[in-house]
């Protein structure tokens, strides 16, 4: 059965769209909250090809799907509106302050990156056409196309109000209305007219809010806090219009009087600092940004720089950081090509080649996590090459006129000042990275495999899986969750942890990191598929007390830290922390042998696969 058919049948058999109050998913299950449980046909759902079983627990109707649960979930969202009331993301309270800020920034800006890249490319193409004489700025054709390219940037506060509202849990329509007030024609006329403006006698310093970033984010954050407070106070019968009324008459003036000037001045200040750095030593600035960019991406810290780039474009009409990041992208792509040319391992050659293709178009995760970072030396060669290319780009004073993932198709967004230097810089970083990677080399998996060509002893173990946790060993049959206990998802073992640290049980690649941090999937270098589920029903915490340290696609070694979790708080909250470690492709092995130890430490053997 296909994903579309599975989604359609499941939705129909739980009683239809009107019977679904809410729907979320964890690592393996669709978790329905139903209006009327009697309308759901459990037996028919369990009979579906894509359904493992159905569990009713904690007031939820849980349909166990397995590893492709997220695909079925998305398909249900496409064919119904059951997810539309659940579009609001909870404001993350986990991790440290910096981690929360990075999470906020990524959630607000990520949905806009695709359309920003498209609009930016169109802007660049229009600039090329006018400089070549193919179009004139007075032509109505140019006017129409420029409106299509520039409208996103002009009305950026409107779009940011939508994504910020979803992140902070505010009413999306009220948020858009607040943003609309900031760029309302009459307000713009007041600003341009330089007339004294006040609000009940309070002076208002009007700013130009078109294309701005910081003011609307501050405004929506404050409004989200105000909405939650008001909704607790106001009676249900009137809060649907009283809460928006109060928010509009307070947040709009507050933004114009306080948040707006603070945000605009902060943005102008940041832009001025960036310009000063590039004016002081453009070559050094370009080299440092290019060298550090992929390292920042690995740790997710680069999201803190995205608003700075957008702010520079909004304030100055161009940005000097983005061109240097392009050198990093092309350098890691070049490193992947160097690996492809050098390796004798057929699988690695194929992987590096496909990763290089995606890298050329600006998607470097497969190249970095699957190839260069895993082999270490190619990643370093990429960083060095990026620094050289970044220095050339910085010295050329290259700029970007829009935001977008640097790649072959987005080159037009860099058309303008220093464009020739930009082309030279990315070319140097790309070619140099190929050459360095090929010359420096790396530990080729093919050579490593050839060194172990001794004939295997009879009944040798195919792979040993070590413990990802320190604690007590529990037979899988004894855990309270019948899906895991019945080995429906695969054979394995459970551990009751004594410390809040989860490490990799083998060398491999992370295939799944659930957003709430309570479940992880990985595939080992010997193609064993492992699912680790921290506790039972912990998905209800929506990430609280869980702190993932890896991302999907990341290569890991046995013993590498995957996550930390507050074990004491989880136990105090009443959660069963027995943690199943499941071999989800059990059917590919003759047997899965469990350890006979009662206590294990991390990296001690717990499973032998034959």
Question: Would you spell out the secondary-structure blueprint of this structure?
Answer:
Layout: H1 3-13, E1 20-25, E2 29-34, H2 42-46, E3 53-57, E4 60-64, H3 69-79, H4 97-109, H5 113-131, H6 140-154, H7 156-168, H8 172-182, H9 185-193, E5 198-199, E6 202-203, H10 214-233, H11 239-280, H12 282-299, H13 306-316, H14 321-342, H15 346-360, H16 365-375, H17 377-395, H18 419-440, H19 445-450, E7 463-466, E8 471-474, H20 482-485, E9 491-497, E10 501-503, E11 508-513, E12 519-524, E13 529-533, E14 546-548, E15 555-556, E16 561-565, H21 567-572, E17 579-583, E18 592-594, E19 599-600, E20 605-609
Antiparallel strand pairs: 1-2, 2-4, 3-4, 5-6, 7-20, 8-9, 8-19, 9-17, 10-16, 11-12, 11-15, 12-13, 13-17, 14-16, 18-20
In total, the number of domains comes to: 4
Radius of gyration, taken over Cα atoms and rounded to an integer in Å: 27 Å
Mean pLDDT: 83
Low-confidence stretches: 85-95, 446-461
Helices and strands: which structural class? Answer: alpha+beta
Major beta-sheet overview: 8 strands, antiparallel
Compute the separation of the termini in Å. 31 Å
Features:
610 residues; alpha+beta; Gyrase A, domain 2; 4 domains; 8-stranded antiparallel beta sheet; 4-stranded antiparallel beta sheet; 21 helices; 14% strand
